Amino acid sequence: MIVIDSISDNIARVEFDGVFVEVPRSVLPADCKEGDVLGFMKLDNSEILKKGSDRLARMRAMSNSGGDIDL
Fold first, then answer.
1. Chain-wide mean pLDDT for the chain?
2. What is the enclosing helix (H) or strand (E) of 13?
3. What pLDDT does residue 66 have?
4. 7 vs 1, 17, 45, CA distance in Å?
């Protein structure tokens, strides 16, 4: 669990497991405020990574240059 200790300008000070860390305000939910408690959720991104790898392979196969692709 993460507790938002303070928010000043574009920096938020959060407490995680007894350790205070400063993070950009932009990485927190838009509607959060001081004192809010945030949680973690573990996501399985294996399907997302596979789709990205498959897409990259298709793009390389279609490329005339056969070199690197700028995304």
1. 86
2. strand 11-16
3. 57
4. 17, 19, 30
- Residue indicated by tokens 């350790």: 19
Beta strands 11-16; 19-24: pairing state: antiparallel
Nearest to 13 by CA among 30, 29, 31, 35: 35
Q: What is the pTM of this model?
A: 0.57
* Amino acid at residue number 3: V
Q: Which two tokens stand for residue 20?
A: 């205070």
Burial class of residue 29 in the structure, from the number of CB atoms within 10 Å of its CB (0-12 exposed, 13-18 middle, 19+ buried):
exposed
Measured distance CA(15)–CA(53) in Å, rounded: 36
Contacts 24+ apart (CB under 8 A), 42-45: none
Fold of 2-62: SH3 type barrels. (2.30.30)
